Each structure stands twice: as structure tokens, then as C-alpha cells.
Amino acid sequence: MAQDIATIGYIAFVTLALISPFLPLFLMWRAAGLAVAFYAIASLLEGPVHWTEQDFGWAIGQAILVLFSFAIALLIALRLCFSTYRGQLKPETLAGSKGRPMRALDLVFLGVVGGFTGLLLTLGLSMLLSGQPFGGGLDRTIAVLTGASGAALLIFSRANTAIVFSTALGTISITAFMGSAQADRILTGAEELSEGRPWCLTSGTFSSQISSVGELGFFAMRKSTTYPHLGILVRENGMVRFIAHWSIRQQRFVPAWGAIDTVSACVPITDYADTLQSGAIDEGVYAVGSALYAIPADFQARVTPRRISIRSTLLVGTDSVHPKIAERVSLTENASDPSLPEDALSLEMMPNPAKLSASDFTHPNHIRLAGIEERTGRTVILDCLSGPYADELCRAQVFEGSRRYDFLLPFRRIQNWSEATDQIAGLFEGFRLTQASGHVP
Fold first, then answer.
1. What is the 3-state secondary structure of the chain?
2. Which end of the chain is less packed: N or C, by CB atoms within 10 Å?
């Protein structure tokens, strides 16, 4: 429905903009103002265009829109200049007659402005109330309060400007009422998309898991400036896939944009809707790759369906002076094959930190090492003495089968990268669950 209204808004914008320069002055500025208002409403309802869809056709469309708007603005400016030259640009000329037709037109203009204002306020409220657990009840409360306030204002106020405020409140009320059934639409749509496969609902990257139906309300749903607000993951052939995201404006699931790492991990199960409604979601368990991981909150996990990043003092120690970024270690499942840097030295040329002087610990003496360890078959890329922590840390990427471990290692321990990898692998293995744990992969 939102898209249909947006289409009507764009048609109204083009029509009014085209005719506005050729109308009498008192109609010209009103038509131009309405055109701008309709375009603003249509843009809000349609929402931003994702970068993956900003192709050549989109660029051509944007160029045409800019040229069209510029041409209309130029015609209006020339018309105003000509009217000024002839002495026609007077307040009474711009105001027009005071008859009923003109008053009705002004009320329409104020109503459209109020509608746009209502949409802006709805957008602001949805961000302000994001993350609240009250669900549809919050939506219905807002619908009743704003609807009653708008009606009272319209009845008891005789000022024309009351039209703007009452229409704005009415817009919020209608939107909230229509959005009050969003949770049901989400669960129904997700079950249809899953087609019997295990599924779950997830939010944007690094957000906590969704644990109740109340979080799916129109105003309560978590929102961010990044994509997506809500997505559906399904388990297929032992792996988790991100198949669609929820469009709040369109009130339906649409095909997913981008990579799976743009969403948080959750655990797909066949009876996810019932589990969510009963509040039995385990927020500390995540499906990553083909496995399940239970990660304590103390590790401040950031989990996507392919990657786990945790905070740990395992490598740097609890008394380390290294910044917190050095305490982040990560595991990536189904990582892409490693590509060894051409300028990297072999592992046999690894320097002994104990034999380096103070002058060696400077940014120009950047060291990069790469190779395959014969004992384990691991591929490693070590990037040392570079970046903001050039005097202390090495960035390590270690590939083992389909997994990749990323961590920062103190330079004095560069020769112990393999032992450090063993420690990290053991840490993540300790988080891994088996089917006997009561969770069904």
C-alpha cells in the first residue's frame, strides 16, 4: 500500500510541477508547493534505494529528475521576474480571491503539509521507541491517543493551521493502527518463506537476539541506520542462509540484499514462531556455519551466521596495557581461500624480537610474513609493525580447513603464533554445542 501511495505522490508531483509555471500567480506557487510536498511524501514512503540497486538506470533516473526540477524552477523564476517587471507581483495577486474554492484549495494544501509532517513524526517516533518490548499494544495506544487528539483539535479549533496538526496526528494514528498487526504479518510471512525449513528472525549486525513477539511491533521493532532492521534466516543443507528482510514501509518480506554477515546470528528451528511466542528463545546460543555455539555474556560476542568475534584477554593478559581492540579474537566459518601477499617474507625469515633494536620498532620497518606450517597445514599471514599500534602488535590471519582465525598478537610473541592459534581454537571449541545439549541444529 505504501508503494501505491508513493507512486500516486510521484504522479501528482510531475503533474503539478509541469502545469505550475503556466497557472495564474495565485495558483502557481500553490501548485509548486503541493508538488514539492507530494514528492517529499512519496520519497518518505518509498524509502532509500539500497546501493546494490543504484545501477546505471537509477543514475539516469536521478539525472532526469534533477534536470526536470531545474527546468521547472527556472520557468517559475522567469515567470516571477517577468511579473515583477510588469508590476504584477503584489500580495493580493499572490493571495488570490477569498471565495470558497480558494479556501478549499488552501485547506488541501495545509492537509498535504500535515500529512508530510505526520510521516516525519512517525519516522521520529519509530526511532525513539525502537527496542521497546510492548509490541502491538504500544502501536494501538499511539493510534488511539493521536487519533483522539487530532479529532479534538479539528472539532474545537477554528484556525486553519489546526488542519496541519490534526492531519499530522491523523497520519500517525492511521500508520500506528495499520502497523499494530505487523507482528502477525511477520510471522505468517516468515513461515511461508521458510517452506518447512528451520528458520529464525534476526536483526542488524551486533544486535542482541530477538526474544519475544513484542519486539516485532511497528514502533517497538529495533531500527538502525544500517541494513536490515529485521531479516529471516533459514537452515538449508546444513548451512544457514539469509533469504529476505522485512520492509517496514511495504509490510512484507523482500529478497535479501548483500552478504550474510550484515545480520546477527540466531538459531533456525522448525517451530520458531511458537518458541518466540512462548518466550523460550535462548539469547546466548547462535548458529554459525553448521554448528551451534553458546557464548557467555562476559565475552561480549558479536555474532553473524558466519563469524564469531569475542573479547578475550587470552593472548594479551589481564594486566596488558594494550587497547581493548587487541583483545578481540574471531572465528570465521566457510572462509574464502587465502591469498598470500606477494610482498610477504617466508616464515623461515621470521625475525627474533629479542634481537631487534628500538629503531626497528617503527612504522617504516613494516614486516609481513606468510606461509604454510608443515606440522599442521595451517596457512598464516602475519602483518607486523604497521598501523596505529605499529610498535607492539601483529595482525594474524590463520586458515585451518574452512575456518579462519583473526587476532592481534604482541610482537614479542610473533614466533608463537601457532601456539596462540591453538589457544584460540580451543577457546571457541569450548563454546561449541552438541546435539545432546538440547538444541537442534
1. CHHHHHHHHHHHHHHHHHHHHHCCHHHHHHHHHHHHHHHHHHHHHHCCCCHHHCCHHHHHHHHHHHHHHHHHHHHHHHHHHHHHHCCCCCHHHHHCCCCHHHHHHHHHHHHHHHHHHHHHHHHHHHHHCCCCCCHHHHHHHHHHHHHHHHHHHHHHCCCCCHHHHHHHHHHHHHHHHHHCCHHHHHHHHHHHHHCCCCEEEECECCCCCCCCHHHHCCCCCCCCCCCCCCEEEEEECCEEEEEEEEECCCCEEEECCCCHHHECCCCCECCHHHHHHHCCCCCCEEEECCEEEECCHHHCCEECCCEEEEECCCCCCCCCCCCHHHHEEEEECCCCCCCCCCCCECHHHCCCHHHCCHHHCCHHHCEEEEEECCCCCCEEEEEECCHHHCCCEEEEEEEECCEEEEEEEEHHHHHHHHHHHHHHHHHHHHHEECHHHCCCC
2. N
